[in-house]
Amino acid sequence: MWIQKEIDLPAQRRGFHLITDRVLAELPELAQISVGMLNVFIKHTSASLSINEDADPTVRQDMESHFNKMVPENAPYYRHTYEGPDDMPAHLKASIIGSHLTIPVTDGRLNMGTWQGIYLCEHRDHASGRSLVLTLNGKV
Amino acid sequence: MWIQKEIDLPAQRRGFHLITDRVLAELPELAQISVGMLNVFIKHTSASLSINEDADPTVRQDMESHFNKMVPENAPYYRHTYEGPDDMPAHLKASIIGSHLTIPVTDGRLNMGTWQGIYLCEHRDHASGRSLVLTLNGKV
Amino acid sequence: MWIQKEIDLPAQRRGFHLITDRVLAELPELAQISVGMLNVFIKHTSASLSINEDADPTVRQDMESHFNKMVPENAPYYRHTYEGPDDMPAHLKASIIGSHLTIPVTDGRLNMGTWQGIYLCEHRDHASGRSLVLTLNGKV
Fold it and tell me: What number is the ipTM of this complex?
Protein backbone atom coordinates (compact mmCIF):
# COMPACT_ATOMS: atom_id res chain seq x y z
CA MET A 1 0.00 0.00 0.00
CA TRP A 2 1.38 3.37 -1.07
CA ILE A 3 -0.13 6.75 -0.11
CA GLN A 4 1.51 10.01 -1.13
CA LYS A 5 0.44 13.60 -0.49
CA GLU A 6 2.00 16.96 -1.04
CA ILE A 7 1.02 19.51 1.57
CA ASP A 8 1.62 23.23 1.97
CA LEU A 9 2.46 24.61 5.38
CA PRO A 10 1.75 28.29 6.03
CA ALA A 11 4.66 30.72 6.45
CA GLN A 12 6.16 30.54 9.92
CA ARG A 13 8.61 32.77 11.72
CA ARG A 14 12.28 31.78 11.90
CA GLY A 15 12.67 29.04 14.50
CA PHE A 16 11.72 25.48 15.34
CA HIS A 17 8.04 24.51 15.09
CA LEU A 18 6.09 21.37 15.96
CA ILE A 19 4.15 19.97 12.99
CA THR A 20 3.29 16.45 14.20
CA ASP A 21 -0.45 17.16 14.45
CA ARG A 22 -0.58 18.69 10.98
CA VAL A 23 1.22 15.71 9.42
CA LEU A 24 -1.09 13.24 11.17
CA ALA A 25 -4.20 15.18 10.14
CA GLU A 26 -3.19 14.69 6.50
CA LEU A 27 -2.85 10.92 6.86
CA PRO A 28 -6.08 9.25 8.00
CA GLU A 29 -4.89 6.22 5.97
CA LEU A 30 -2.21 5.64 8.60
CA ALA A 31 -4.80 3.89 10.76
CA GLN A 32 -4.99 1.03 8.24
CA ILE A 33 -1.25 0.25 8.18
CA SER A 34 -0.09 -2.55 10.48
CA VAL A 35 3.62 -2.24 9.59
CA GLY A 36 5.26 0.40 7.42
CA MET A 37 7.30 3.55 7.09
CA LEU A 38 6.47 7.23 6.60
CA ASN A 39 8.87 9.44 4.69
CA VAL A 40 8.53 13.19 5.22
CA PHE A 41 10.48 15.34 2.75
CA ILE A 42 10.80 19.13 2.56
CA LYS A 43 11.13 20.61 -0.94
CA HIS A 44 13.30 23.55 0.12
CA THR A 45 16.98 24.25 0.80
CA SER A 46 16.67 26.84 3.56
CA ALA A 47 14.42 24.95 5.98
CA SER A 48 14.78 21.46 7.42
CA LEU A 49 13.05 18.64 9.29
CA SER A 50 14.00 17.02 12.58
CA ILE A 51 12.58 14.87 15.37
CA ASN A 52 13.08 16.11 18.90
CA GLU A 53 11.42 16.91 22.23
CA ASP A 54 7.82 18.01 21.82
CA ALA A 55 6.94 19.06 25.36
CA ASP A 56 8.96 22.02 26.68
CA PRO A 57 9.06 24.99 24.27
CA THR A 58 12.43 26.10 25.68
CA VAL A 59 14.03 23.16 23.85
CA ARG A 60 12.92 24.69 20.55
CA GLN A 61 14.12 28.15 21.63
CA ASP A 62 17.54 26.77 22.58
CA MET A 63 17.74 24.95 19.22
CA GLU A 64 17.34 28.31 17.48
CA SER A 65 19.94 29.97 19.76
CA HIS A 66 22.52 27.24 19.35
CA PHE A 67 22.23 26.82 15.59
CA ASN A 68 22.60 30.59 15.22
CA LYS A 69 25.84 30.39 17.22
CA MET A 70 27.17 27.29 15.41
CA VAL A 71 26.27 28.67 11.98
CA PRO A 72 26.63 32.46 12.29
CA GLU A 73 25.42 35.14 9.92
CA ASN A 74 27.98 37.31 8.13
CA ALA A 75 30.90 34.89 8.43
CA PRO A 76 33.82 36.54 6.58
CA TYR A 77 34.26 33.49 4.33
CA TYR A 78 30.70 33.50 2.89
CA ARG A 79 30.49 34.35 -0.80
CA HIS A 80 26.80 33.54 -1.28
CA THR A 81 25.53 36.75 0.32
CA TYR A 82 23.20 38.45 -2.16
CA GLU A 83 20.01 36.92 -0.74
CA GLY A 84 20.67 38.39 2.71
CA PRO A 85 22.66 37.45 5.82
CA ASP A 86 20.21 34.71 6.83
CA ASP A 87 20.42 32.86 3.50
CA MET A 88 23.75 31.01 3.56
CA PRO A 89 23.34 30.03 7.24
CA ALA A 90 19.92 28.63 6.24
CA HIS A 91 21.48 26.41 3.57
CA LEU A 92 24.11 25.20 6.03
CA LYS A 93 21.55 24.41 8.73
CA ALA A 94 19.50 22.49 6.14
CA SER A 95 22.47 20.22 5.39
CA ILE A 96 23.32 19.78 9.07
CA ILE A 97 19.77 18.96 10.22
CA GLY A 98 18.52 17.30 7.04
CA SER A 99 15.70 17.45 4.53
CA HIS A 100 13.82 14.27 5.31
CA LEU A 101 12.66 11.87 8.00
CA THR A 102 11.75 8.19 7.80
CA ILE A 103 9.58 7.12 10.71
CA PRO A 104 8.35 3.57 11.45
CA VAL A 105 4.62 2.84 11.44
CA THR A 106 3.20 0.19 13.80
CA ASP A 107 -0.44 -0.79 14.35
CA GLY A 108 -1.86 2.26 12.65
CA ARG A 109 0.33 4.95 14.21
CA LEU A 110 3.76 6.56 14.01
CA ASN A 111 5.99 4.52 16.32
CA MET A 112 7.89 7.43 17.86
CA GLY A 113 8.90 7.79 21.51
CA THR A 114 6.67 9.43 24.10
CA TRP A 115 8.47 12.76 23.88
CA GLN A 116 9.24 12.84 20.17
CA GLY A 117 7.61 15.25 17.76
CA ILE A 118 8.26 16.34 14.18
CA TYR A 119 9.92 19.76 13.82
CA LEU A 120 9.78 22.10 10.86
CA CYS A 121 12.98 24.10 11.24
CA GLU A 122 12.51 27.47 9.51
CA HIS A 123 15.87 29.11 8.89
CA ARG A 124 14.86 32.21 6.90
CA ASP A 125 13.73 35.51 8.40
CA HIS A 126 10.87 36.05 5.97
CA ALA A 127 10.00 32.69 4.46
CA SER A 128 6.92 31.92 2.44
CA GLY A 129 5.03 28.70 3.06
CA ARG A 130 6.84 25.38 2.75
CA SER A 131 5.87 22.26 0.78
CA LEU A 132 6.26 18.77 2.18
CA VAL A 133 5.87 15.41 0.47
CA LEU A 134 4.47 12.66 2.70
CA THR A 135 5.03 9.11 1.41
CA LEU A 136 3.52 6.26 3.37
CA ASN A 137 4.38 2.67 2.48
CA GLY A 138 3.25 -0.40 4.38
CA LYS A 139 0.99 -3.37 4.63
CA VAL A 140 -2.60 -3.39 5.83
CA MET B 1 7.91 -8.67 2.93
CA TRP B 2 7.80 -6.56 6.07
CA ILE B 3 9.53 -7.42 9.35
CA GLN B 4 9.43 -5.09 12.33
CA LYS B 5 10.93 -5.45 15.79
CA GLU B 6 11.31 -3.19 18.77
CA ILE B 7 14.44 -3.87 20.79
CA ASP B 8 15.79 -2.57 24.07
CA LEU B 9 19.47 -1.76 24.37
CA PRO B 10 21.01 -1.75 27.84
CA ALA B 11 22.14 1.53 29.39
CA GLN B 12 25.49 2.65 28.07
CA ARG B 13 27.91 5.31 29.21
CA ARG B 14 27.96 8.68 27.42
CA GLY B 15 29.78 8.29 24.12
CA PHE B 16 29.67 6.53 20.75
CA HIS B 17 29.03 2.77 20.72
CA LEU B 18 29.00 0.16 17.97
CA ILE B 19 25.71 -1.76 17.78
CA THR B 20 25.95 -3.42 14.36
CA ASP B 21 26.23 -6.94 15.78
CA ARG B 22 23.28 -6.45 18.09
CA VAL B 23 21.08 -5.16 15.26
CA LEU B 24 22.06 -8.06 13.00
CA ALA B 25 21.44 -10.61 15.77
CA GLU B 26 17.82 -9.40 15.95
CA LEU B 27 17.24 -9.86 12.23
CA PRO B 28 17.79 -13.45 11.08
CA GLU B 29 15.10 -12.75 8.44
CA LEU B 30 17.59 -10.46 6.67
CA ALA B 31 19.14 -13.54 5.07
CA GLN B 32 15.98 -14.09 3.01
CA ILE B 33 15.83 -10.60 1.47
CA SER B 34 17.40 -10.24 -1.98
CA VAL B 35 16.75 -6.48 -2.31
CA GLY B 36 15.40 -4.17 0.35
CA MET B 37 15.95 -1.49 2.98
CA LEU B 38 16.37 -1.51 6.75
CA ASN B 39 15.18 1.45 8.76
CA VAL B 40 16.63 1.84 12.27
CA PHE B 41 14.86 4.39 14.46
CA ILE B 42 15.65 5.51 18.02
CA LYS B 43 12.65 6.43 20.19
CA HIS B 44 14.52 9.06 22.24
CA THR B 45 15.47 12.72 21.93
CA SER B 46 18.80 12.70 23.78
CA ALA B 47 20.57 9.90 21.91
CA SER B 48 21.08 9.40 18.19
CA LEU B 49 22.11 6.98 15.44
CA SER B 50 24.93 7.28 12.92
CA ILE B 51 27.01 5.21 10.52
CA ASN B 52 30.75 5.62 10.75
CA GLU B 53 34.11 3.86 11.07
CA ASP B 54 33.86 0.63 13.00
CA ALA B 55 37.54 -0.34 13.33
CA ASP B 56 39.63 2.10 15.37
CA PRO B 57 38.06 3.04 18.73
CA THR B 58 39.85 6.42 18.70
CA VAL B 59 37.38 7.55 16.02
CA ARG B 60 34.55 7.07 18.50
CA GLN B 61 36.50 8.84 21.24
CA ASP B 62 37.20 11.80 18.96
CA MET B 63 33.51 11.94 18.01
CA GLU B 64 32.65 12.39 21.69
CA SER B 65 35.38 15.04 22.14
CA HIS B 66 34.39 17.04 19.09
CA PHE B 67 30.63 17.02 19.65
CA ASN B 68 31.24 18.19 23.23
CA LYS B 69 33.23 21.11 21.85
CA MET B 70 30.78 21.94 19.06
CA VAL B 71 27.76 21.66 21.39
CA PRO B 72 29.02 22.76 24.81
CA GLU B 73 27.37 22.35 28.17
CA ASN B 74 26.27 25.44 30.09
CA ALA B 75 26.07 27.77 27.10
CA PRO B 76 24.80 31.11 28.46
CA TYR B 77 21.86 31.12 26.02
CA TYR B 78 20.35 27.80 27.15
CA ARG B 79 16.98 28.12 28.89
CA HIS B 80 16.18 24.40 29.05
CA THR B 81 18.50 23.66 31.98
CA TYR B 82 16.44 21.98 34.71
CA GLU B 83 17.31 18.41 33.61
CA GLY B 84 21.04 19.04 34.01
CA PRO B 85 23.90 20.49 31.96
CA ASP B 86 24.08 17.44 29.66
CA ASP B 87 20.40 17.58 28.65
CA MET B 88 20.10 20.45 26.16
CA PRO B 89 23.40 19.50 24.44
CA ALA B 90 21.96 15.99 24.12
CA HIS B 91 18.85 17.29 22.32
CA LEU B 92 21.04 19.40 20.00
CA LYS B 93 23.34 16.48 19.17
CA ALA B 94 20.29 14.33 18.42
CA SER B 95 19.08 16.83 15.80
CA ILE B 96 22.57 17.24 14.32
CA ILE B 97 23.33 13.51 14.06
CA GLY B 98 19.80 12.25 13.52
CA SER B 99 17.30 9.76 14.89
CA HIS B 100 17.18 7.20 12.10
CA LEU B 101 19.14 5.34 9.45
CA THR B 102 17.98 3.72 6.22
CA ILE B 103 20.44 1.11 4.97
CA PRO B 104 20.21 -0.87 1.71
CA VAL B 105 19.87 -4.65 1.84
CA THR B 106 21.43 -6.78 -0.90
CA ASP B 107 21.58 -10.57 -1.16
CA GLY B 108 20.67 -11.19 2.45
CA ARG B 109 22.94 -8.65 4.14
CA LEU B 110 23.27 -4.95 4.94
CA ASN B 111 25.06 -3.40 1.98
CA MET B 112 27.37 -1.11 3.93
CA GLY B 113 31.02 -0.38 3.17
CA THR B 114 33.85 -2.46 4.60
CA TRP B 115 34.57 0.00 7.40
CA GLN B 116 31.03 1.09 8.19
CA GLY B 117 29.25 0.23 11.40
CA ILE B 118 26.08 1.41 13.16
CA TYR B 119 26.66 3.75 16.11
CA LEU B 120 24.40 4.36 19.06
CA CYS B 121 25.39 7.86 20.16
CA GLU B 122 24.55 8.23 23.87
CA HIS B 123 24.49 11.90 24.81
CA ARG B 124 23.32 11.73 28.45
CA ASP B 125 25.58 11.17 31.47
CA HIS B 126 23.25 8.70 33.18
CA ALA B 127 20.90 7.32 30.57
CA SER B 128 18.64 4.34 30.99
CA GLY B 129 18.37 1.78 28.21
CA ARG B 130 17.29 2.89 24.74
CA SER B 131 14.54 1.47 22.49
CA LEU B 132 15.03 1.04 18.77
CA VAL B 133 12.50 0.13 16.07
CA LEU B 134 13.92 -1.99 13.26
CA THR B 135 11.79 -2.06 10.10
CA LEU B 136 12.88 -4.30 7.25
CA ASN B 137 11.16 -4.11 3.88
CA GLY B 138 12.17 -6.01 0.78
CA LYS B 139 11.56 -8.83 -1.61
CA VAL B 140 12.61 -12.42 -1.12
CA MET C 1 8.82 -2.99 -7.71
CA TRP C 2 12.40 -2.98 -6.46
CA ILE C 3 15.42 -1.76 -8.44
CA GLN C 4 18.89 -1.66 -6.92
CA LYS C 5 22.20 -0.58 -8.42
CA GLU C 6 25.67 -0.02 -7.09
CA ILE C 7 27.55 2.72 -8.90
CA ASP C 8 31.12 4.00 -8.75
CA LEU C 9 31.74 7.72 -8.87
CA PRO C 10 35.16 8.90 -10.03
CA ALA C 11 37.54 10.53 -7.56
CA GLN C 12 36.67 14.16 -6.92
CA ARG C 13 38.55 16.93 -5.19
CA ARG C 14 37.65 17.84 -1.60
CA GLY C 15 34.43 19.83 -1.61
CA PHE C 16 30.73 19.67 -2.41
CA HIS C 17 29.71 18.29 -5.82
CA LEU C 18 26.39 17.99 -7.61
CA ILE C 19 25.59 14.40 -8.65
CA THR C 20 21.88 14.60 -9.46
CA ASP C 21 22.38 14.04 -13.20
CA ARG C 22 24.63 11.04 -12.64
CA VAL C 23 22.13 9.41 -10.26
CA LEU C 24 19.25 9.98 -12.67
CA ALA C 25 21.26 8.61 -15.60
CA GLU C 26 21.62 5.33 -13.72
CA LEU C 27 17.87 4.99 -13.13
CA PRO C 28 15.87 4.89 -16.37
CA GLU C 29 13.40 2.66 -14.47
CA LEU C 30 12.37 5.72 -12.45
CA ALA C 31 10.09 6.73 -15.32
CA GLN C 32 7.83 3.73 -14.64
CA ILE C 33 7.23 4.45 -10.94
CA SER C 34 4.05 6.36 -10.12
CA VAL C 35 4.66 6.53 -6.35
CA GLY C 36 7.76 5.44 -4.49
CA MET C 37 11.00 6.28 -2.72
CA LEU C 38 14.65 6.35 -3.74
CA ASN C 39 17.33 5.59 -1.16
CA VAL C 40 20.87 6.78 -1.95
CA PHE C 41 23.57 5.37 0.33
CA ILE C 42 27.32 6.05 0.36
CA LYS C 43 29.53 3.12 1.38
CA HIS C 44 32.26 5.28 2.97
CA THR C 45 32.92 6.99 6.30
CA SER C 46 34.83 10.06 5.09
CA ALA C 47 32.38 11.39 2.51
CA SER C 48 28.67 12.13 2.82
CA LEU C 49 25.44 12.89 0.96
CA SER C 50 23.18 15.91 1.23
CA ILE C 51 20.41 17.74 -0.61
CA ASN C 52 20.86 21.45 -1.10
CA GLU C 53 20.85 24.35 -3.58
CA ASP C 54 21.89 23.28 -7.05
CA ALA C 55 22.09 26.63 -8.84
CA ASP C 56 24.75 28.99 -7.48
CA PRO C 57 28.19 27.34 -7.05
CA THR C 58 29.09 29.77 -4.24
CA VAL C 59 26.69 27.84 -2.00
CA ARG C 60 28.87 24.75 -2.41
CA GLN C 61 32.05 26.78 -1.83
CA ASP C 62 30.62 28.26 1.36
CA MET C 63 29.60 24.77 2.52
CA GLU C 64 33.22 23.70 2.26
CA SER C 65 34.44 26.84 4.06
CA HIS C 66 31.98 26.55 6.90
CA PHE C 67 32.37 22.84 7.57
CA ASN C 68 36.15 23.36 7.68
CA LYS C 69 35.64 26.02 10.34
CA MET C 70 33.06 24.04 12.33
CA VAL C 71 35.13 20.83 12.16
CA PRO C 72 38.77 21.97 12.09
CA GLU C 73 41.85 19.97 11.27
CA ASN C 74 44.45 19.37 13.98
CA ALA C 75 42.15 19.91 16.94
CA PRO C 76 44.25 19.24 20.05
CA TYR C 77 41.78 16.60 21.30
CA TYR C 78 41.98 14.34 18.22
CA ARG C 79 43.63 10.96 18.82
CA HIS C 80 42.81 9.41 15.45
CA THR C 81 45.53 11.24 13.54
CA TYR C 82 47.65 8.64 11.73
CA GLU C 83 45.72 8.88 8.44
CA GLY C 84 46.43 12.60 8.11
CA PRO C 85 44.91 15.86 9.36
CA ASP C 86 41.93 15.63 7.01
CA ASP C 87 40.84 12.17 8.18
CA MET C 88 39.15 12.69 11.56
CA PRO C 89 37.37 15.86 10.35
CA ALA C 90 36.11 13.76 7.41
CA HIS C 91 34.58 11.18 9.77
CA LEU C 92 32.97 13.94 11.83
CA LYS C 93 31.51 15.68 8.78
CA ALA C 94 30.13 12.34 7.60
CA SER C 95 28.18 11.90 10.85
CA ILE C 96 26.98 15.52 10.83
CA ILE C 97 25.80 15.53 7.20
CA GLY C 98 24.84 11.88 6.90
CA SER C 99 25.43 8.80 4.76
CA HIS C 100 22.08 8.42 3.05
CA LEU C 101 19.11 10.18 1.50
CA THR C 102 15.54 9.03 1.00
CA ILE C 103 13.76 11.00 -1.70
CA PRO C 104 10.10 10.67 -2.75
CA VAL C 105 9.25 9.57 -6.28
CA THR C 106 6.11 10.89 -7.99
CA ASP C 107 4.89 10.30 -11.54
CA GLY C 108 8.21 8.95 -12.78
CA ARG C 109 10.56 11.53 -11.30
CA LEU C 110 12.28 12.53 -8.06
CA ASN C 111 9.88 14.87 -6.27
CA MET C 112 12.44 17.40 -5.08
CA GLY C 113 12.02 21.17 -5.02
CA THR C 114 12.98 23.39 -7.95
CA TRP C 115 16.34 24.33 -6.45
CA GLN C 116 17.24 21.03 -4.82
CA GLY C 117 20.08 18.83 -6.03
CA ILE C 118 21.96 15.83 -4.64
CA TYR C 119 25.43 16.60 -3.26
CA LEU C 120 28.36 14.25 -2.90
CA CYS C 121 30.35 15.83 -0.07
CA GLU C 122 33.99 14.75 -0.42
CA HIS C 123 35.84 15.37 2.84
CA ARG C 124 39.26 13.84 2.06
CA ASP C 125 42.12 15.66 0.30
CA HIS C 126 43.07 12.74 -1.93
CA ALA C 127 40.10 10.40 -2.09
CA SER C 128 39.67 7.55 -4.51
CA GLY C 129 36.33 7.02 -6.20
CA ARG C 130 33.22 6.50 -4.09
CA SER C 131 30.57 3.75 -4.27
CA LEU C 132 26.88 4.47 -3.91
CA VAL C 133 23.96 2.06 -3.57
CA LEU C 134 20.74 3.26 -5.22
CA THR C 135 17.60 1.46 -4.04
CA LEU C 136 14.32 2.35 -5.72
CA ASN C 137 11.04 1.00 -4.35
CA GLY C 138 7.60 1.88 -5.64
CA LYS C 139 4.56 0.93 -7.61
CA VAL C 140 4.14 1.16 -11.36
Answer: 0.97
